[in-house]
Amino acid sequence: MIADLLTRLRVLMSRRRWQQELDDEIRFHLEQEEAARLRAGADPSTARREARLAFGGVDRYQEETLDASGVRPLSDLAGDIRFALRALRLNPGFAATAVLVLSLAIGAATAVFSVVQHVLLAELPYPNPSRLVRVYQQDSPSNIWSLSVVDVQAILEQQKTLDAFGAVRWSAAALAGAGRPEQIPVARATSGFFRALGQTVATGRLIETGDEPVGTPPVALVSSAFAAERLGGARAAVGRSITLDGVSHTIVGVLSAGVEELAGVRAAVWPVLQMGTPDRRGPFGLRGVGRLRPGISLEDAARDLAGISQRIYPIWEAGFKNRVARLTPYPLRDTMVGSARHQLQLFAGAVVLVLLVAIANVATLLLVRLSARAHELSVRATLGASRARLARLVLTESLVLTVASAGIGLGLAGLGLELVGLIAPNLPRAREITLGGQGILIALGLGFISGVLVSLSPIAAVLGRNLAAMRAEARRSGGARWANVVRGALVATEFALAVPLLLAAALLGNSLLRLQRVNPGYEAGSNFAVWLSLPETRYPDSTAVETFWERAVQRALETPGVVAAGLATSPPPDNQGDVNNFNLVAHPVPEGGAEPVSPWSFVTPGFFSALKIPLLDGRMFTDADSSGAPPVVLVSRSWAEHYFPEENVIGQQLVEGGCYQCPLTTVVGVVGDVKYQGLTGNGEGVYAPLPQQGPRTAALFVRTQTAPESSIQPVLDQLRRLDPELPLSGVTMTEQLRRALADPSRWTAVLSGFAAAALSLAAMGIFGLMSYVVRRQRREIGVRMALGAEPLDVMRMVVIRGMRCVGVGTGVGLGLVMLEGRWLASLLYGVTPHDPTTIVAVTGLLLMAALLACLLPGIRAARIRPSEAIAED
Fold first, then answer.
1. Phi then psi for 698, rounded to 5 degrees?
2. What is the pLDDT of residues 164-207, one digit of tens each?
3. Residue 571 region, left (φ>0) first, then alpha (ψ -120 to 50), else beta?
4. DSSP letters of 37-91?
């Protein structure tokens, strides 16, 4: 096949010389044949004519020879392309409309498919990425969580199926510098984390096992960007020291250029993770990443890790009663993608629907254009053009349109990818998304597929109809019946495809409205929060920490305009992972069963006053609930109703955090529900007195009499007087709520854009179809009106005909709606995928848009003057 193609190309490149030789050969044979006729007594003109006839005709011989060589088809293709370009240039309105519709659809599809390719399909940018796993704790198919120090150390000591294994913990740290301290993202990691991912350094060395023992001088890696911006470049950075949370770290290496994220963790600085000897199984906050040994399957690793779980359970059983929990590996790529998989699948499906609607729209335009060209095609057929030849002309014109659309769509896709960071800032692997060669191939592939699809119905018309009959039918006022049926079917298809898109957008919009109306459980309008983190070097003991917290609250209350202030370790509505397990004394979990967990925050009484969270029963915390006092908690109303539905929760006791040797914790009060697990979560929560925990990181919540934005800076100034080296920043609680709604708002906006495009294309399709029908039936409509038909009757006739197509398409679309429920369910709140109210509203909107699109041609038909229409030929 390749040799044949090379031969054809070689012949084409030497065509002029080859054709000259062919002409000379033909001339020689003609002269010999003509001489023979002259010798037989024929006159010169007769001899020349008979020689040509006997020879079969020079033109025919040349054509057959060229076809056999394979040159003529290539020449015809070039001619077809030139003809298509000329024909489109003569019809700029049609060409511009078709290219605009297809380029927008192809551009959107190329952008979305490029995102899907890089996020869902492409391998991770690490050596042998298929062998990378992330290890979790798991006790049921839906309940998985991160690892503890005990888990990581046990895996490092006992595993037999991993080439390398390490752990990482992301956090924010205070970076001391020449100016004000600032918070930067850091990821504390062990040496095995970098080995598992096959990382190298631009200069210096990686973190090594000798850096991990507690008490060893802390070291860190930094990104190339951080080294360039802050430390004078990679070579200058190695050996320098940076201070994080008051602790000096020596920089031992700079990561390779472009490495800003590893295994889904993004950080500027990577300090060593030093793990001491644990005193209990929890807490669980480490991300474990490993590399499978060659020849080891995921199932082999799962069995190995499950064995480790069984061996360490008896050692820590006193504080961790979950006997069924197992260390479980998952492919790293799957864990990085997470919930984004469902969202991207939804948008990929949406953009496919938009593309199909656009293809149906352009196919309708091509059918209309084919009817107008019936005379031209029949003339070509009369002159000898075969049906296949005419079909090739139609296909070439379609491909020229779609290739041009693909080129423009490629540019639009590049612009679309620039918006990905704004639309989905938390999208995993977003830094890897580029257009590149794959994007070009996607755009060209979509262009070719679109070209073939849009030409199917016109080609079928050319191959399946008698061209003379087509010409005669086109001259009649109604046009060809078959063409009208096909055009109506294409328009109905557009509406059928638009229905699922519109419904998905409407459901997401409905869900977003319900989320916006959710009561978060606190007053946000007059509040703001300031994050504070106390370094151990300057606050070495609990007394120093507690003293600072007391002074911070007092300074905030002394600020003009502030009416309440308090501390909490977890900010609503999106808790930062502060949960705790517990076991109720009155209702203990079965032996070996999983203990329940709940959002758990350490607070001061001023926190409830600042956010106006009401006390519903029992008492509030007092100064007596200090670090040495018996442990007590407040619980939310939902928590009390969940665990003690028929009992009084006040006075109930529980074992906290698996510490069965610790004093029992007593419930002393019930407060109002607050959303800690997102706005879609329940209102369960537990609060403990902050002095009993002594945390080094907390948020100061402040309520003011004025706009909170104007009070943030005065409060920050007061806190800086306490400790100028603390990095401080404030955010209003209104902004916190807006951030909680950011992702649903973005996804709703994107899908609504797709739905609007599909609806617009469908409306354009029915408008164009009915406008064409009115134009073709102008004389018939004039006759009807001359015979007594009223303008309203004519308008009704046009509208009913158009709405019949719309009704069929909408009915089919409502059937398709049943298929999209599973993609939407995980993205919705307070509404089901088949909500009848939303379905009725979407159907009404679609029919109203279609009715408007049909009314305009109907009004034009009603204004036709019978005398002028009948006089037209």
1. -160, 165
2. 999 999 888 888 765 677 888 899 999 999 999 999 999 999 99
3. beta
4. HHHTT--HHHHHHHHHHHHT-HHHHHHHHHHHHTHHHHHHHHHHHHHHHHHHHT-
pTM of the model: 0.75
Torsion angle of the four alpha carbons 275, 276, 279, 280, in this order, in degrees rounded to the nearest 10: 10
Token pair for residue 119? 């996020």
**Residues 830/681, Cβ–Cβ less than 8 Å:** no
Tokens linked to 355 = 């593309």
pLDDT at 73 over 70: no
Sign of CA dihedral 217, 221, 227, 233: positive
Query: For strand 219-222 and strand 247-255, is the pairing parallel, antiparallel, or unpaired?
Result: parallel
Q: Angle CA(665)–CA(670)–CA(671) in degrees, nearest 5?
A: 125
User: Closest Cα to residue 719, out of 180, 172, 179?
Assistant: 180
Q: Which of 213, 198, 838 is nearest to 500 (CA)?
A: 838
Tokens 């009484």 sit at which residue? 605
DSSP structure class, residue 830: S
Q: At what angle do helices 2-13 and 15-39 cross, to 10 degrees?
A: 70
Residue 85 to residues 78, 81, 90, 411: CA-CA distances in angstroms? 11, 6, 9, 21
Q: Which of 867, 673, 694 is nearest to 786 (CA)?
A: 867
On whether the CB atoms of residues 821 and 834 are closer than 8 A, the answer is yes
Vertex 568: Cα angle to 598 and 609 (nearest 5): 105
- Residues with Cβ < 8 Å from 381, sequence gap 6 or more? 387, 390, 467, 468
Q: Tell me if residue 141 falls in helix, strand or coil.
A: coil
What tokens appear for 675 in the block? 């959303």
pLDDT at residue number 425: 67
Residue 485 half-sphere exposure toward CB, CA atoms < 13 A = 4
285-339: pLDDT as tens digits: 899 999 999 999 999 999 999 999 999 988 888 777 778 889 999 999 888 887 6
Alpha-carbon span 262 to 223, nearest angstrom:
11
pLDDT at 5: 43
CA distance 304 to 158: 9
Classify the phi-psi angles of 522: left when phi > 0, otherwise alpha if psi is within -120 to 50, otherwise beta.
beta
Which pLDDT score is estimated for 77?
63
Q: What are the two backbone dihedrals, phi and then psi, of residue 26, each rounded to the nearest 5 degrees? A: -65, -40
* Cα separation, 458 vs 387, whole angstroms: 12
* pLDDT mean across residues, the chain: 82
Backbone angles phi, psi at 203, to 5 degrees: -155, 155
